[in-house]
Amino acid sequence: MLYNLAKPLIFRLDAEQAHRLTIGALKRVPDRPIPDFARRLGQTVAGLHFPSPVGLAAGFDKDAEVYSEMLGLGFGFVEVGTITPRPQAGNPKPRLFRLVEDKAVINRMGFNNGGQAAAAQRLQMRVRERGIVGVNIGANKDSEDRIADYVLGVQQMGGLADYLTVNISSPNTPGLRQLQDEGALKDLLQAVREARGDAATPVFLKVAPDLEADDPDRIAKVAIDEGIDALIVANTTIDRPDDLQSKYRGEAGGLSGRPLGRKALAALRAFRSASGGRIPLIAAGGIESGADAEARIRAGASLIQLYSALVYQGPGLAMRIAGDLAQRMREEGVTDIADWVGSE
Hints:
- The protein is an alpha/beta fold.
- It is built from eleven helices and 13 strands.
- It has a single domain, classed as Aldolase class I (TIM Barrel).
- It has helices at 2-10, 15-27, 67-72, 116-123, 146-157, 182-196, 215-225, 261-275, 290-298, 308-313, 317-332, and strands at 43-45, 48-50, 54-56, 77-83, 96-99, 104-107, 132-137, 163-167, 203-207, 230-233, 254-257, 281-284, 301-306.
- The protein is globular, with a radius of gyration of 19 Å.
- 48% of the residues are buried.
């Protein structure tokens, strides 16, 4: 309710300015106790126990500044980043746009972040008992060897994260998505596997929703063969649906929020079919309600992530979705959310 009262004032600000003010405000708030989630929502994925399937996607807390505060707001896990080896400013501003009429966001941020060293200092201070924190790693825009950047990410951040996400799916770093090509992907994941060595930190792979017909089969096979622990489906899209209403609909960058939902769900189903349940899936893109979350879980997702919907619905959304899921499970007599996974 408070967010709804403040939203008109927040929306008068530039989107990126509003985001920075939000991060600053969260840093000044004392840590809230971790909520008690319904036990039926808990499950183990990639060897980690997630008390709720509702997570915060990468992009909100790029520099690992407020992961603890977001866990206190009711997220079952938080993914920080994308973090690159060296600091980088990202793309020129403006680069973040609210498509209010469409309940969407377009961003072309370009992996703006303070680099691994600064994030590592913050993550070293975290209280691990508060909850699961993943680190999303990427390559610097001007890197001459992007695979080497991901290897550095694994080496530098692996010991500080509960899991790592290899992000090769952002549309805002030129050429990055080419790492999804079969040969390049295999080389990358082999290097990541070697860098991880005997460490127990799970590694996830985040893929784009803009796929050719054979991409899910090819990507899933390489990921399984190379020991990747989960796939995150999916990142933002470069497509623009014909029915977008906002004046910002023509801006370059990745589209997220409500218009991404249908495409992200289709991609999730394609990866579920391609993998046959042999690798856990994490759904992202266009999730803004308990019904959306349930649909993704039934389509094969063990976990879900959201971000853009927070812009329009506020910080209580994670708890509302978790509560809706628990209520629906009670009504159906389901005691373990894992029984829902892939049940459609």
